[in-house]
Amino acid sequence: MPTSYEVIFLGQLSIIDSQANNEETAENAGGILGTYGTTGTPLFNNVRTLTAERQTEDDNNSYDVDNFGGYDSFRINGGAPQNFDAVAIYNATITYIDGTTASITAVVFQDVNGRTYLAPELTANADQAALTAAPIRSLQLVSVASNTGDAAGDMAANRIAGDFKAPVDGAETAQTMGVGFADGQNDRVTTGADVVYANGGNDTVVAGGGGDLVYGGTGDDTQHGDDGNDALFGDQGQDWLFGGTGSDTLSGGTENDLIYGGSDNDTVSGDDGNDMVYGDAGNDTGFGGAGSDTLYGGDGNDSLSGGAGNDSLGGDGGDDTLFGGDGSDTMSGGTEGDILFGGADGDTLSGDAGDDSLSGDAGHDTLLGGMGQDRLAGGTEDDTLFGGADADTLWGDAGNDRLVGGSGSDTLTGGAGDDVFGFDRAGGADTVTDFDMSDADGDGRTNDQLDVSALRTLDGRPVTAYDVVVQDAGGGSARLVFPEGESIVLLGVAPSQMTSAAQMFRAGIPCFTPDTLILTPQGQRPVTQLRPGDLVVTRDDGPQRIVW
């Protein structure tokens, strides 16, 4: 077996041989228990080559632990000699790049400065197979199995070659890198878990099976994760990323990217640029990032966030949650019950089918409930809310809002501001919870207004105040009943406040149809152009000023 082999550098740690005169015992072996390597700083980037320099034990076949006769030494990557100090064996857990794990007994050694390394095994045993099965993200030293070195009390110098999985490095030109591809160091793309750096050029990477980690580098790259839980990063360029099967993590990077999560539960992110992001099947999490992005959740219960820019978000199937973020976003929940948050700026939110919850937040928003029993909240500023089919709940919140319940028996609350409550033909029995009958600006109209322009009489005319029947809805509230059966309950508005045509006119119900012409001293004018104080010609008393 060779005396030159691969090791993994764990870092400069506490000295495990704290008592130099204690012969072959690493007294502080427990002092370095813990986890080494993270997702951002994986151990597969710390593979080094050890070359033997001096061994004095066991017929010069082992590194001396007691160091009474001087230090044995080794070199790392051909560098200066490092004096060997101590070795210990640990019960340990390996975590690979795809998150899977394996339990091993790990041989860990140090030089006199605490530089600590994971060594390969003496033979091709199960532990060695685990060490080389896939690129290693981290190593957890769980407990000390032995603090006296190997069976002879030292550390054998002749060990198996190691062959830890290292990244596959592409060239700076366009390449196609699939299973079997080998780079200049003979690191290969396998059917297992791989790490691939495509580097420069417009590359195509087909990572194959296993949980793979792929970095596109510069250029317009196409990446396929295929099977396994993969992580694909487009980096620079206009990239196409396809996760395939497994729960994948895909990130487009800079410029305009196209990203498909594939089956299972994926995390997909467009990052910079105007990206197209598709979660596809599974319960996916999508982030648009900067730029004006398009995100589709696909099947499953998805969570989509547009981020900055004017984004378009579609939940499609499943119970989805959509966040517009900054910019003027367009959002569509799709089938089933969805939750939509508009975020900053003026957004358009459509619940589509299912019982949805829509919140406009900031900006001048338009909310469309669609089918199902929906809950709509406009948020700040002046919003427009349409409930759609079925019994919906609409809340304008702050600002001067327009609320239209649609078909079904809806509940409408304007909130702060001067609001307009609109009603559809065959809209059902609606309730307005906070109709404001006061006249703050003295214009002869109530602060809130009713818009009944869509309602008709039985002969098809637009309704006027003379077509409305006022009833007592109980609890001190008036019910307005229209010719085709629609009704509106105004909570807190007494029937006596809506008895006359003049009272209804002040609340927004016209006394004449919009196309009616009224004779004035200046000739005939549409009734919609007249205001209190204008002169009209009466039959008996000549010109008179309009009171209401």
Automatic annotation (TrEMBL):
Q: Which InterPro entries match?
A: Hedgehog/Intein_dom, Hemolysin-typ_Ca-bd_CS, Hemolysn_Ca-bd, Hint_dom_sf, RTX_toxin/Mannuronan_C5-epim, Serralysin-like_metalloprot_C
Q: Which residue ranges does the record assign to the Hedgehog/Intein (Hint) domain?
A: 510-548
Q: Does the keyword Secreted apply?
A: yes
Report the superkingdom from the record. Answer: Bacteria
Provide the primary localization. Answer: secreted
Identify the stretch(es) annotated as Disordered. Answer: 260-280, 292-382
Q: By its UniProt entry, which SUPFAM superfamilies does this protein fall under?
A: beta-Roll (SSF51120), Hedgehog/intein (Hint) domain (SSF51294)
The alphabetized UniProt keywords are:
Secreted
Q: Which GO terms describe its molecular function?
A: calcium ion binding
Q: Give the Low complexity compositional bias ranges.
A: 320-333, 346-361
**Assigned GO CC terms:** extracellular region
Spell out the Gly residues composition-biased ranges: 306-316
- Write down a Pfam family by its short name: HemolysinCabind
| Localization in the cell | Secreted
What's the protein called, per UniProt? Hemolysin-type calcium-binding repeat-containing protein
